[in-house]
Amino acid sequence: MIAEQPKQNWIIRHRSQLFLAARLLMSVVATYVVTRLIGIPQPQWAVLTALIVTQGSVGGSIKASGDRFIGTVAGAIWGGAIGAFVPHTDAISLGEALVMAIGPLAFLTAMRPGLRVAPITAIIVLMAPTGTTVDPVESAAIRLFEIGIGCLVGLITSLIVLPVRSRQQMGNATNNALQLMGELMSIYVASCLGTRSASQSEPMETALQQHLDKFTGIAAEAMQERKLYRAIDYDPAPVFRTIMRLRHDLVIIQQATHEPLPTSIAMRLGPALNRIAAVTEEFFHESGLAIEGNAPAPSIAPVELAIDNFNEAFDDLRNEGGTRTFPSATVKRLFSLGHGFEQLLRHCTDFNERTKEWVARCH
Questions:
Q1: Do residues 249 and 184 lie in contact, with contact meaning Cβ atoms separated by under 8 Å?
Q2: Contact at 8 Å (CB) between 159 and 26?
Q3: What is the pLDDT of residue 34?
Q4: pTM of the complete model
Q5: Of these four, 51, 154, 223, 361, which has the most CB atoms within 10 Å of its CB?
């Protein structure tokens, strides 16, 4: 029993990778069987396409299938047209035909990287294997049919074989980002109170940016996937936008807390600042669990109360003349910090509403 537990934990941790491996295998096998049943002489193109379009989520497969098929159509039509109307019987004329075929498609690929298969298809159509008698137009039609079979089988496999929804991946990515944001808030507050070094936030900021970069891709896949599940799925765009706004709020707070506050100010505002850090980290933690599907949406009230207490403490400090003896740069930092907290509260409130909607729609 003890030996089985690590194996079970490993399987749970790598469940998404195992599911993807199973879908890839099934997609390749199914495509090969289909090509043999309908008599395609060169099944490798359909099989390779099925392997490429079978992604880690349904949304990713939808986007990959669309890009692959559109790119193939563009490459096949243009490559077939060049092959049919531009003579290319010797090495020099073939080189000229290649330039004419690839030039426009290279620009298309530069504009839309997802269509990078277009010039590849044009090359395959134009440079038919030596000894074949298939003309360029027929070659383009065959290639288009093969790629279409691969896209269709790959997409169907992603939909029915251990499907992983982009919504699930987005929930995990949101949770990871929020946990890091909560930890960063605590570090920022501690650094302005002189209890921690501001440099301690640098590894977490790098990790957060990596998560947000990944989050951007997942959100795009989720929006593609929603085209299939619009009636039952929640729109991921509002969650994505609010997460990015919260990240911007943390940047404002980080800039205002990069140096320790004067001792007298830190002593007066310290309790209120520590309270903001604690309740914000807890709010981010609980919101992440809710988006991931493991908890209800938290209350925003503790964050509101903590920021109100800070504003009162800051107002009292100013009314008592506690900031008059300090440089204007210090006072500006305090106002900037207060502005950052107000922005944070507004976007936390917005995110709390989005979280409630997400939980209500997806569970």
A1: no
A2: no
A3: 92
A4: 0.69
A5: 154
